[in-house]
């Protein structure tokens, strides 16, 4: 039997939320691993298939409780290009002051097509998750050039890798780094 993408994601999501299928999800305070995995799954489906949340809601009727599905979809973002980007977003989700939000893959229109994995354009904070390809000297040099360019335009750039997100004590440091960037915005003489 062949099913469409919204039905496929609902079938997979149902088994993840019920704990029948799982993978090792890094912990985030106040979030159950089934929820984290569910958001990662929906992010991946949305990113790779273009399926929209409304289509997932329609396919989930009588399969996943509406409140449970809404929790996952409200946390989902089709711009996440990897499970680690989803984790980064979930880690810093509530770090911004009220009225501000993170934007995934913000197109800044320059620098060879690169885009911050998460950005708050109003506050000029850019977050990157640097996976294994960023370990190469050439890519690191390109990343530093991008960082310098963004910083020259008033952006604060924070880069994180698997080690930063993969260890509980370091995950706290990720949130703390974002908080320091926000605190800098409140300093006299710092443009916001």
Automatic annotation (TrEMBL):
Origin superkingdom: Bacteria
Domain DUF559: 115-165
A Pfam family per the record: DUF559
UniProt cross-references to InterPro entries, sorted A to Z: DUF559, Restrct_endonuc-II-like
The protein's name in its UniProt record: DUF559 domain-containing protein
Protein species of origin: Corynebacterium variabile
Organism lineage: Bacteria, Bacillati, Actinomycetota, Actinomycetes, Mycobacteriales
């Amino acid at each position: 039997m062949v099913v469409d993408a919204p039905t496929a994601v609902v079938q997979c999501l149902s088994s993840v939320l019920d704990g029948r299928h799982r993978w090792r999800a890094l912990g985030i305070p106040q979030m159950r691993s089934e929820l984290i995995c569910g958001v990662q799954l929906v992010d991946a489906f949305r990113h790779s298939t273009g399926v929209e949340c409304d289509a997932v809601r329609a396919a989930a009727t009588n399969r996943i409780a509406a409140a449970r599905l809404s929790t996952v979809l409200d946390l989902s973002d089709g711009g996440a290009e990897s499970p680690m980007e989803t984790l980064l977003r979930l880690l810093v989700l509530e770090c911004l002051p009220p009225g501000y939000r993170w934007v995934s893959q913000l197109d800044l229109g320059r620098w060879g097509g690169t885009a911050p994995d998460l950005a708050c354009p109003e506050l000029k904070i850019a977050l990157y998750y640097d996976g294994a390809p960023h370990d190469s000297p050439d890519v690191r040099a390109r990343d530093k050039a991008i960082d310098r360019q963004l910083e020259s335009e008033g952006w604060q750039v924070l880069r994180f890798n698997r080690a930063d997100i993969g260890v509980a004590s370091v995950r706290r440091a990720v949130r703390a780094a974002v908080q320091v960037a926000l605190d800098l915005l409140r300093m006299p003489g710092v443009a916001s």
